[in-house]
TrEMBL record, chains A, B, C, D:
Keywords from the UniProt entry: Oxidoreductase
EC number from the UniProt entry: 1.1.1.374
Domain Gfo/Idh/MocA-like oxidoreductase N-terminal: from-to ranges: 3-119
Top EC class for this record: oxidoreductase
Pfam families: GFO_IDH_MocA, GFO_IDH_MocA_C3
Protein's UniProt name: UDP-N-acetylglucosamine 3-dehydrogenase
Gene Ontology molecular functions: oxidoreductase activity
Domain GFO/IDH/MocA-like oxidoreductase: 130-255
Length: 351, 351, 351, 351
């Protein structure tokens, strides 16, 4: 059985999807649609993709295929998701589901109406170190989690649209925080009842990407229904390199997960070398290169799970409803940044 | 020149003081006052202390000496400090300065009136790893700090009074948080303008120590005048062992300080051994024993600095005003736990 | 194209092979031969293997298939390899190639005669952290390697035959050292000219496995043609858990690889949990569980490479000649254990 | 009671001694003798030393004092020790005791005759992380040690004489290896029976210091009387920074000590900063700065112990006989580098 996938977009994350699909037997990429013909053609060549290039994504949607990968700026998630679902395609959609709950809710309802599945791309939930930690938590290794912390940081995204409110719907919180929130909800297996958050813009001038209109730093706290309080810290102004850390404190122990810095490999190099990890500012001196980066961060495992779900007609671990729930938490956090107080999370009703 | 010191109290921290003074040439302990005669006599024997035991602390205060170490429950800081200052003694007072700002302010004013110095015991500021980090920050190694985090945890204090509101004035926040807040203010060298905090009681039943009336967990955020936001996490419900971590994020780099877990020594022992670190729940399996624990956490260096200040008639790095400032931040955080919103810090006016 | 594989043996390493093959599309296991019917049937059930169970391995060899996995005690490598090759099958053979060079040479010559390939199973060379280190070395990150160290240890193997000279051909050196030697030869990309080694038996009584007749500890030094000296340490008497460390020192830097202890995950558990890593003596206290253990140590990647080589008719990175070269080094080291001096390595001539 | 000390030499290690003595109350430095007047005067000023500068060390020896610190190239240890002892002074002598056993034996005998004490400076034995490890070993935490490893490395010494056979008596082995050997003998509390060693010159051209005539790399193995085998690796050609590692493997556990790299402090700095640790090649990127470096490596604790021994008329942990024993092991290792085989250690007879 061959699963046919079309890809819309040709940037950083489209390349991750192409790589992941190329690792999975039984998947055929039937074509790429993008406004940027050059980068799309490069992906087609690099991953030896059978299907052609389409300028207009509607032309791709009119092809026979099972699913569409939506690798586009946040502002286009809503429009393109609705179009793909209305054509009877499953969708693979990168976090966040949309810019806000209102948009996200319409996407989820459209999927219900079309009887198609939203595969919500939250790679960390498929990363092996995170999965092992989840096994330990679920197996009772650390008792009941009452406190925790998530942190993601790097020096800032690699496309201009991330820095613009209208295109992205927010900054470091909706871009990085959404990862931590998803993982923390998954680990605690509880709903977030209330939130608190404040943000700031530390580095407003982003050179070639123009002005940073959105928060480049955010710090907040999630209050879970079981009483746990968990902090999140998100930053687009941290030199060194991409880093993701989770700490979980339970009544019987603790877990620290940090695949980007606690590495099986330490290197001191006077010469430097080609590549250590995403956004590494140098490879000279001491570094902690990540072996098999894409696999370490769960991209191919995520796509493998999604393809299995299509083949076996199962609901993925991370579906549209999950993506919408996380978005509702983010939206309440943005509200708290304005009010300066704890805000209750409102989860949209879905039948 | 010999500096004469009297000690009031004979518990855990009194032993730390006795040890530290015993390391410093030119210091003579002239006596110990305590309600608990047995433990006081043990200290006198263990550290070969010249001076006698006093039941009533007023009898100790009437002796000729330069300074008094106040190693008592928080609720007695106010009364005993005023008594010692009125007798013309300098005071060494363990954190927190008092149970609240009102008490603390009276202590500071009494010291001004008596023209005596309050030596505020915040050992972390004298710990070598923290000092080295401070050098790096002040030398510009990480640029301007815009985000950070402090965390202290262990499984709970070793005396019943810590768990009682009236005796302690609060729980994990005033006991552990006060360390982190002091260090963060020191590192950023900026005032905290606003705060946010929430607390919880995770483990209310404390066995021999009775009910835990105060928060055993606290999570809050400090907002500094320069715009930096820094989280603190404090817990009395974490198994493993005492742990203190500081992370500082600057525009040009980052620093992680963690003397209790990032150790020069890793041990796997099937047999276990005598002592790894304060409140270690086991010494079997992998542990990270702390070499020269008292020194690692800065106790003798702190006392050496204080004695030097007395000899040279200098103001210590951590004086009563500093202790009062930190207490004002804590008090605003307790206010925030009630209001559920950001609270402005009110610093008491002192000439 | 489907690659058909038969498996001889049903112990620890047979399970690794079955798992790896089950991960690779296009591989069909056509049957398992083993003297132990129970464990063979369990593997057939666990991995949903199509083919039947054979008591006599000759019956398996008479089936139509491309390759045979030889998962047997070292003493049977020679006989079974010759039989499989003579039936026109490729062979997958676990390290060591054989008990000694004489046996190994006959296997290599038999493969040449049969025009079949020996796939020599040295999983570390396919482990992602080791591969990343190799990229860095080859890219010049640390300059020329002039010194290094390999160490593997655990508390001892899980089958009685490992402890018997006749069945195993040696102890910790041929069992664990052979991994380190292979990786070090690979990293330095130089031949070993001379060696030195001494061994000992620290724990002769092995309970259910009887007497340990072979060395359970070995320490030696490899002298490479470029002048580099590299130590190896191998132990079957180390509690804690399986550990593999490589350190490489170059004129421009250094690399430390340690996938079994430098983990992306640290856990403190009072309760303990199911599984941390091979031969972990406890899961209580601090542990460093390995996410995706089989993948971390390179087993499925190794088999994927081998299957690719069969499909594409390529020579694997680790073929029979490589296995024989490593065995020649081991043999010289055993000679040194007797002579107490440096011994020259004699590499058998093969056309 | 004031202990009066004279110092001969004014280089790197003389500064360490001056610093250490300045930390110890009750020690008075009565003068410094050195051929290099400038650096001697700088020390006198920096450490506020009371005593004068002497060109000729005999003039210093004729002063009234208790002990002489010998901070000179190895080739002068013999002559100056004999002179100081004959004047009735105790001597503080940096490792190695002398260039070889013959010289060392004469020094020890001269001390016996003069009834004075040789204080052999092996700082690692006084370093807090090493001391803590010793406590654990002696307390049975890891059972009986059967294997181990010592490694010291940096990029090369800071004076020309180290690189010359006649002045130093050897290279990395006698300079760095002597530390590891001393610590390993101390940890195992057993005598070394036999040794093996090989050396090499990796970087012969040492710029301003001229040709490297001695080994800049050494790798050897110590065979203890209890059957333990312990490797040592020493290098003067490792970039990054000074690093010292000890690993001890026992029947019940293991210990890793690494105060120079396993630090309580991790820093990423784009700007760099003043000082991380001895011979750090950069402070940009990730570094592991050492807090309180001199204390971490045991220098002031060592001198404090020595002064205490003088005051209390005790034998130090590390006396001349200990230094001579370590030197005998080194000498056997040099013999092994020539013979290419295991050599028995001959310990000189002393009554």
């Amino acid at each position: 059985m061959v699963i046919k996938v079309g890809i819309i977009g040709s940037g950083f994350i489209a390349e991750h999807h192409c790589f992941a699909f190329s690792q999975i037997p039984g998947v055929k990429i039937i074509g790429i649609s993008s406004l940027d013909q050059d980068s799309a053609l490069k992906l087609i060549e690099k991953f030896n993709i059978a299907g052609p290039y389409f300028k207009d994504y509607h032309d791709l949607l009119s092809q026979v295929c099972d699913a569409i990968s939506i690798c586009l700026p946040n502002s286009l998630h809503h429009e393109v998701s609705l179009a793909a679902l209305s054509q009877g395609k499953h969708i693979f959609i990168e976090k966040p589901l949309a810019r806000n709950v209102a948009e996200g809710l319409e996407i989820v309802k459209a999927a219900q109406k079309a009887k198609k599945t939203i595969f919500y791309c939250e790679n960390n939930i498929y990363a092996p170190s995170f999965v092992k930690a989840k096994e330990l938590v679920d197996g009772g290794a650390i008792g009941k989690i009452y406190m925790g912390r998530g942190r993601e940081h790097h020096s800032g995204p690699h496309s201009a649209w991330f820095y613009k409110q209208k295109l992205a719907g927010g900054g470091a919180l909706i871009d990085l925080g959404i990862h931590d929130i998803a993982c923390l909800v998954w680990y605690l297996n509880e709903d977030v009842e209330k939130v608190f958050c404040q943000t700031s813009i530390v580095s407003p001038d982003r050179g070639e990407f123009g002005q940073c209109e959105v928060e480049d730093n955010a710090m907040g706290i999630l209050y879970f229904e079981n009483g746990a309080q968990v902090s999140i810290e998100e930053s687009w102004t941290a030199p060194s390199s991409f880093d993701v850390k989770i700490e979980l404190y339970g009544t019987k122990g603790q877990i620290i997960v940090n695949p980007s810095h606690m590495a099986p490999l330490e290197v001191f190099s006077e010469n430097g070398f080609g590549y250590a990890v995403e956004k590494a500012s140098t490879t000279k001196g001491w570094t902690f290169p990540i072996p098999a980066e894409s696999w370490t961060f769960g991209y191919p495992q995520e796509m493998q799970h999604f393809i299995n779900c299509i083949v076996e007609e199962r609901i993925p671990y991370t579906d549209g409803k999950f993506g919408l729930k996380i978005l509702a938490i983010v939206e309440a956090m943005y509200k708290s940044t304005q009010s300066g107080k704890i805000e209750v999370v409102f989860y949209p009703k879905i039948e």
